[in-house]
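tmp note - Cobalamin-binding protein
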Amino acid sequence: MLVQVAQAGPSAVDASGRTVALDAPAQRIVALAPHSVENVYSAGAGDRLVGVVSYSDYPEPARELPQVGSAFAWSLEAVVAMRPDLVILWGSGNGLTGLAGLERLGVPTYVSEPRSFADIASSIRAIGALAGTRDTAEAAAAAFEARIAALRERYASARRLRAFYEIWNQPLQTVNGEHMISQVLELCAAQNIFAELAPLAPRVNIEAVLAADPEVIVASGMDRSRPEWLDEWLRFPELRAVRNDALVHVDPDLLQRPTARIAEGATRLCAKLDGVRAVAQTSR
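out:
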């Protein structure tokens, strides 16, 4: 008698702690955040994507994919119409209401919430497991981890800089120590002057920045271009950041999206902070 043993389908544990189990590797994936779209491509499953959200602009092929709304306002009906066998949700961005709706309809879901370098690598590996592209995902995750480890070693003994990270100018907004951007600053031997504030992205006032007197101000803005409002700090020549000529801009997509590209953003930021250290050293 020939006995056939059924092989179990792929599975992975998501950010909410649920074990996501599929009958077979996912073939039709909908990703509901730009960072998830990038991580699907990194995992080698970009050709499985059938739906994304607005601002899913990297890599280039993602621009051509059908959109089901935005990360903060997506259509359940549009997602279901894509006939997905896996939907990747962004826990804090998409909200859990949509998760319940998809689960009621029997649509498999994976919750993504990368808040650390390790989370990015884990997310890429999990997507690879669920899509059956484990080898590609492992290579991408390992390469990312290697770049982060190299930066950590390189800047372990660098002089620490006091830094203010400016997300936006009106209202004046920054990040606290729990945000991944703070982890990038730490990687580059910089200390977030507002690390101890409670909200993840707190609002602050100009007086608080002046009182903290950062040695460098890093700004992101909305796109690759340097925001004009970064130069508003030139009104305060007493600031060490102004004296150091240390008003720094890095492409926000390289720092504010929790994807493998954050290693490139960190590399660029670390290099710019090295320049700040050199200027500060000569001006002493």
